[in-house]
Amino acid sequence: MTKKYIFIFSLMLPVYTGTAVGQANASLCTESLSCKQLTLCALMSGIAGYTLFRETNNTKIKRALTIWHTAYSSLSQVKTLSDMQLFLQQHSSLEHDVAISHGELEARYMSSCKPWNWTEDMRDAYTKIKILDLLFEHKEIICAQQVLHEDEICKIARLTYGNKTCYALCECLEKLHQSINMIKNICIKDGYSFLSEVFVRLQKAHKTLAASEHYAYEKRCLSDACHKIMMARIEGTSQRLFRKC
Q: What is the pLDDT of residue 193?
């Protein structure tokens, strides 16, 4: 077989990008490639593309800290619940950026498959962006002017999580539980005193929702649904085993 120069990157580029330039470069490869070679090239193209276009941890950390510093000048002045309500109203434009940055850092720092991301800098950035995400996630509860009775909390829960799940009250209670634990175990001891009044408000909301008849009914429905899914899986497994026998 005549040896020819095959430019691997020229072949990888069209697989990853599908651009006209890449496809033209790929045409320079005159050797016919086997399925194994094509698979290898596709794998290499994916790795190369991931490496070339993947943002570094430092970039994502810097983005999160930039958002944090924008917010912290006001957060550091928060002393009361009214101050926090005012902060959330005045900085509502940050909510989208906070959600994006939080998702990015959570995908890396919280992944059990990526221990190389478990650095002190990543932990610090994730904690700070998580605090902001927590505030915006519970902003309706935090900013409610009236006393939070059962009906009001259920209404807020359905508005906040109703488009994501049929069990909005269960989802809301779980989110409240996670946020309360984060503030209690991490934030307060690290000096984020502006969360003190938020902590009290979230605790009251959690207690009220947990005692709600609406929540109890929804929890039973969720439990029944999970039981039916489990039984269907067991039945499906049994049928497959029976057919094999």
A: 87
Nearest partner of 139 among 98, 170, 185, judged by Cα: 98
Instruction: Identify residue 108 by its one-letter amino acid code.
Output: R
The rounded percent of the chain whose pLDDT value lies above 70 is 73
Helix (H) or strand (E) holding 141: helix 139-143
Which of the two residues, 201 and 14, has the higher pLDDT score? 201
Q: Which residues contact 186 (CB under 8 A, 6 or more apart)?
A: 127
pLDDT of residue 108: 93
Which residue pairs from 157-164 have beta carbons closer than 8 angstroms and sit at least 24 positions apart in sequence?
157/209
The pair phi, psi for residue 230, each rounded to 5°, is -60, -45
Report the chain's terminal Cα–Cα distance, integer Å: 52
Closest CA to 58 of 114, 122, 15: 122
User: What's the pLDDT at 37?
Assistant: 63
d(CA 218, CA 66): 40
State the Cα–Cα distance between residues 62 and 52, nearest whole angstrom: 19
Q: What SS3 class is residue 164?
A: coil
